[in-house]
Amino acid sequence: MDSQAAADLSGRQLGKYHIVRRIGAGNMACVYLARDPFIDRPVAIKVANPAGEDTPDEAAHQRPQFFAEAQMAGMLRHPNITAIFDASTEQGFDYIVMEYVPGGRTLDHYTRPDQLLPPEQITDVLCQCALALDYAHRRGVIHRDVKPRNVLISDAMEVKIADFGVAVANSGQKTGADVWIGSPLYMSPEQIRREPLSGQSDLFSLGIVGYQLLTGRHPFEASNFDAIQHRILNTKPAALATFRADLPDIFQRIIDKALARNLQYRYRSGADFAGDLSLVYDFLRDSVRGVSQQEKFARISGLPFFKDFHDLEIWELIHAGDWLRIPDGTPIISEGDKEASFYVIVDGRVGVLKQEQEILELGTGGCFGEMGLLLGRERCATVMARQETTMLRIRGATVERMSVNAQIKFQRAFLFALIDRLDAVTGRMSVARADATPNVGI
Q1: Which residues contact 340 (CB under 8 A, 6 or more apart)?
Q2: What is d(CA 196, CA 177) in angstroms, rounded to the nearest whole number?
Q3: CA atoms of 181 and 179, how far apart (whole Å)
Q4: Strand, helix or coil for residue 167
Q5: pLDDT for 230-248, tens place per residue?
Q6: Is 0.70 surpassed by the pTM of this model?
Q7: Residue 258, number of CB atoms within 10 A of its CB
């Protein structure tokens, strides 16, 4: 690196941006914290290191590669992808202006055995990554370099996937890999073999990241890159339980599917990956409670609400929702409560009360809470258990984390439940005054 590259730009002006301090450095670029004076916000500026001994032709070739990150990431607007605001050349420096992530550690910090995150946080981080990649893939962008150092984590544990410098836009078509691009430690088998790539290649890389976050070890650990790539192509990683006995078995199934060498058995999309990850939360709770998942499935699979769901979609709801047992006479929700949840009665009986007067009774298979989930507004009725009742509670945030197919099935069943509610309550209140319009939501 020459003297210009080694120079610290802190305190200088680059275009309209005032550079505060350097926050990162690499072989290709340095990253600075800066301030945008027009919007008065902090930004991160990635400044390309000068070409040094490169010829003018070589330098001219490198510049488009550097700005490729701005082009690719600039196509994407997602809360878990680092936003690109600007790109330019000033004073001989090529630079990209990006979203600044407060706290901005990379996932690399959490892949050390002594710095591992709790399983719940690992699940959340991987889910955010999978959904961000799904968004990029659906817009034809393949990252090609998913690794811990390219994933930033904010103080609030919000994921920001960064460094789209080697990404490609394929407009939905598989993209050739004529040159070896990416980080050898995180390459998919098809990258190593220089075969056409799709978004599934990024998901394999994310599987490696997940294994590291869970165990603090690389799944294909070896003494050199050649040996690692041989293992990626030919061996199965050690079981997670070898390093972490406290992890539920579902983690192993998810990692195995993400790291499948055969594309036919690997996750087809980030949404599918995230959908399976959403199942982990209940397994983590149930590992303490000792609740039987098979019993839950057997009890709800025959309920009317789930009649159009496939088995996998039912499992997804079971594991992402909350299984509740409510004693007789206990309020489940009360007028004035503000909670975005929806309830399906597995067995038992509840009464729906308006101003202390029962207007409806619901039994096994019944549903309530639709208006709270749909609008997030205060509950306009009280629901009371009339005997010991078991139910599945589905939170609004849970629905957002489900796979696309499960969300579609849920929304369809939810709509039919709401229509049934309108019919039932209207029938029960048909004797009310002609000018009285009942509030049918709960």
Answers
A1: 372, 373, 376, 395, 396, 397
A2: 6
A3: 6
A4: coil
A5: 999 999 999 998 888 778 8
A6: no
A7: 24
Q: Letter for the amino acid at 131?
A: L
Looking at per-residue pLDDT, the higher value among 261 and 71 belongs to: 261
Please tell me the CATH code under which domain 290-428 is placed: 2.60.120.10
105-277 has CATH 3.40.350.10 classification: no
Listed in sequence order, the residues at least 6 apart from 243 whose beta carbon sits closer than 8 Å to its beta carbon are 214, 215, 216, 217
CA gap 325, 391 in Å, rounded = 7
Query: Distance from first CA to last CA of the chain, Å, rounded?
Result: 66
User: To the nearest whole percent, how much of the chain has pLDDT over 90?
Assistant: 35
Q: What CATH number was assigned to the domain covering residues 3-99?
A: 3.30.200.20
pLDDT(229) > 50: yes
Q: Count of alpha carbons within 13 Å of 421, Cβ hemisphere only?
A: 21
- The residues spanned by each domain of the chain are 3-99, 105-277, 290-428
Catalytic residue among 134, 145, 202, 276: 145
- Is pLDDT at 177 greater than 50 in this prediction? no
Active site residue 134: no
Which residue type, as a one-letter code, is found at position 15?
G
Q: Are the CB atoms for 375 and 439 separated by under 8 Å?
A: no
Q: Contact 119/251 with Cβ under 8 angstroms?
A: yes
Q: Does residue 345 have a pLDDT over 90? A: yes
Measure the CA–CA gap between 411 and 402, rounded to whole angstroms: 11
